[in-house]
Amino acid sequence: MTPRTTGRAEQAPPATTVHLPRGGPDASWWDRRFETDRVEYIDRPDAEARCRRVLRGLHRFQRLTGAYRVFSRLALAEVEGVPEPRVLELGAGYGSLARHLVDRHPTVRITVSDVNPAVVDAVRRGPIGHHPRVDCSVVDATAIDADDGAYDLAVLTTSLHHLAPDGVAALLREGTRAARTLLVVDGWRTPLLLGAVPLMFLTGGPAQAHDGILSVRKMYGAAALHALAERCGAPVRLRTRFALPGYLVASAARDPRPPRRAAG
Ligand SMILES: C[S@@+](CC[C@H](N)C(=O)[O-])C[C@H]1O[C@@H](n2cnc3c(N)ncnc32)[C@H](O)[C@@H]1O
Question: What stretch of H or E contains 179?
Fold first, then answer.
């Protein structure tokens, strides 16, 4: 799959409510029908027990499929050469990516965060919450409470599809403000990923299969991400690519180039 890059928008428009098919502006009728706005248990405040079950199941699924190894390799590549990298993990869920990062990097410091305070509390009480190079915090990925450039890297894995399109635009704007680089990894938008649903059922039961099916239908295509980067209201440079076995990998940063002059 050829990598794609979005450069700086000529004049960044102000952020407004963005409506966009998840398959991108040119999504086919079939892709638009495949998309759903049904809500996953993870995003339902009235389904706390199921949310916990899904996160436990997802953790088993990620371990079995080697996902944490892929995510930590991609994240550490982004901070290569930085002596004491500061990483903000957004939408951390179970918190296992942080464990992989501190085990593989001797000096990395990580803020493990999630929008759900119960999720952050569980990580804080667990072993990774007591690690000397880890702290935990409630952070909304679409409105990051941190100074400009506070982090070398902000990373969001398997969570992009939980955000509505205007949330994705806000993430691109906020993630590239608070961190030098924003790394996003989620499933590649294709119905073929439904082939993983039996494994989701085995690792997390019906609740995990329910959320897994909705997730696959809510994944963003690379074209949608590029369209949202152009409309996010900040000069964001975005690069997307496919990674095995079925990930969309996006890295974004603020574009340092001066705006191009309009012709004429
Ligand atoms: C499917 S889990 C992913 C967990 C973990 N990152 C992984 O790769 O296995 C999605 C997580 O994103 C969190 N989330 C949803 N919306 C969010 C937002 N606006 N800001 C931060 N986290 C969010 C949810 O609470 C949930 O813990």
Answer: strand 179-187
Q: Does 42 contact ligand 1 (Cβ within 6 A)?
A: yes
CATH code where residue 200 lies: 3.40.50.150
What is this structure's pTM? 0.92
| Total domains, the chain | 1
CA of 94 to the centre of ligand 1 (A): 9
| Burial class of residue 132 (count of CB atoms within 10 Å of its CB; 0-12, 13-18, 19+) | exposed
Domain region containing 166 = 4-254
- The 10s digit of each residue's pLDDT in 140-183 is 999 999 999 999 999 999 999 999 999 999 999 999 999 999 99
Structure confidence by residue, pLDDT tens digits, 22-70: 999 999 999 999 999 999 999 998 898 999 999 999 999 999 999 999 9
In a domain? residue 264: no
